[in-house]
UniProtKB/TrEMBL annotation:
Residues 24-279 form the EAL domain. This is Diguanylate cyclase (GGDEF)-like protein. It comes from Kineococcus aurantiacus. It comes from the Bacteria.
Amino acid sequence: QAKAAGGGCVRVVDRATGPAHGETLRTVERLRAAVLAPGPQDHLEVHYQPTVDVESGVVSGVEALVRWRRDGELVPPEEFVPLAERHGLVADLGLVVLDRAVADVAALREAAGRDVVLAVNVSAPQLHDPRFLPAVRRAVAAATPNRLVLEVTETVLVAEDVLTAATLDAAVAAGAHLTVDDFGTGYATLAYLRRRPFSAFKVDRSYVRDLETDARTRALVEGLVLLAGSMGLGLVVEGVETAGQADLLRCMGAPTQQGFLHARPAPPGELAATIRDLHERLAPARQAAERAV
Ligand code: C2E
Ligand code: MG
Ligand code: MG
Ligand code: MG
């Protein structure tokens, strides 16, 4: 958001914190360079965190998670994605992530003979970018026979506008699947589940944290499992950190999980090995599932 400050000056105003000080401006410029003109010390990286089904013992997919390599250090997305959103960079960032992720998953298929569902996170401004849908169509074509999933948070959905709704519909028509990310942290979620063509929701990790200690949280998650089942939607639980949580969730009917217990996000070079290890660790579940049929 730029605002005329008189005398031909333009002052950059940060919506959340007021006038930006020098540090923020410099950070924005460095981020712009990392997105649009990447160099060896300053660029975007995409890491991948697997999703597993602890009931059938399979690795079901991977989620692309962006990082900013700045001066060789890895900056987490929470520190720069909001900045990119406010300064008109997130559409470009999203395109970089989508194209990179498609290429990395294709490489995984070539090198390791593994095919996984690819999930990418989508910010609100991307849904207004004319390059978004063509990129989604390319990604869907490249991801075939597997799926491309777009993870959209409730905040995107709450700020409903006609263009956002039309883009989401068009993405689904193009073959992408939609997931509500961080489910349960925003509001108006249930209304959106009624209208938008979502195929799954991802229960926020704040619900998992209290699962073993709080009966109300447990009851809520049980309710969500029932809701997903009766609506024919998939349910993924994020932030699973302990074996106790994983087991409890499995018993509650929520076997599709993501979290540090199963696997941490890995750079592309370590993804094949990460999935191989995970697959091995899931062998007992796989054998039990085979015995059960
Ligand atoms: P998210 O989409 O909900 O992704 C899950 C976040 O939780 C990731 O953090 C992941 O590393 C972390 N996580 C996974 N398992 C666990 C666990 O067991 N315990 C804990 N404490 N954390 C866990 P990360 O990679 O820092 O990403 C944070 C958020 O940044 C993402 O939340 C997403 O909203 C956003 N983001 C990441 N990549 C992108 C992107 O390419 N584009 C956009 N627009 N947003 C992105
Ligand atoms: Mg996500
Ligand atoms: Mg999430
Ligand atoms: Mg989150």
